[in-house]
Amino acid sequence: MTDNKLRVIITNNQKAVKIPTGMRMLVRRCCHAVLELEEFEGPAEISVTFTDNDEIRKLNAQYRNIDSATDVLSFPMGENGVYDTNIDTGAKILGDVVISVEKAVEQANAFGHTLQREVGYLTAHSVLHLLGYDHIDNMEKVRMREKEELVMDQLGLPASSSYIVQ
């Protein structure tokens, strides 16, 4: 993503967890790193919403028919590399990312790493979904995980040994 503008719109719709200083910047850096890794061309726009377990459970039930809280949901706006364009800015609207900060805290504790690492990972994972990646079969899952970890390494948030699945 060379010399192209990326607008990341971040909204905090939860009160369960105080968003640490620097978290919004981390999310922006993470979005930028994924687009750079994928050599995404042109200006882009991504919406990221921080929510709680109750709200993400409702969204998961509404959009995926799964009535349970999850860590992150992705709502891609494009298909096969074709995206809607913001008429005012000319930016490609990639879609929406919704992160349960409550679930991210739970997972960071379970995996023995920082909340920053977990939110960064969830952001990278979700932005790859916005770009059309999926993890339905094992090969795609491995490819996605490699890209996520590459971005985490670039941001100085490598996996702890307890997190690596053998």
Main features:
5 helices, Collagenase (Catalytic Domain), 166 residues, alpha/beta, five-stranded mixed sheet
What would you say this structure looks like, in words?
The protein has helices at 23-37, 53-64, 101-111, 115-130, 138-154, and strands at residues 6-12, 44-51, 72-76, 84-85, 92-100. It is 43% helix and 19% strand. With 166 residues, it is an alpha/beta fold. Helix 1 (23-37) links the parallel strand 1 (6-12) and strand 2. Strands 1, 2, 3, 4 and 5 form a five-stranded mixed beta sheet that branches. The longest helix has 17 residues, at 138-154.
Low-confidence stretches: 161-166
CATH superfamily: Metalloproteases ("zincins"), catalytic domain
CATH class: Alpha Beta
Report the mean per-residue pLDDT as an integer. 91
Q: Beta-strand percentage?
A: 15-25%
Write a brief caption for the model:
With 166 residues, the protein is an alpha/beta fold. It has one domain: Collagenase (Catalytic Domain) (3-Layer(aba) Sandwich), CATH 3.40.390.30. The chain has five helices and five strands; from the N terminus they run βαβαβββααα.
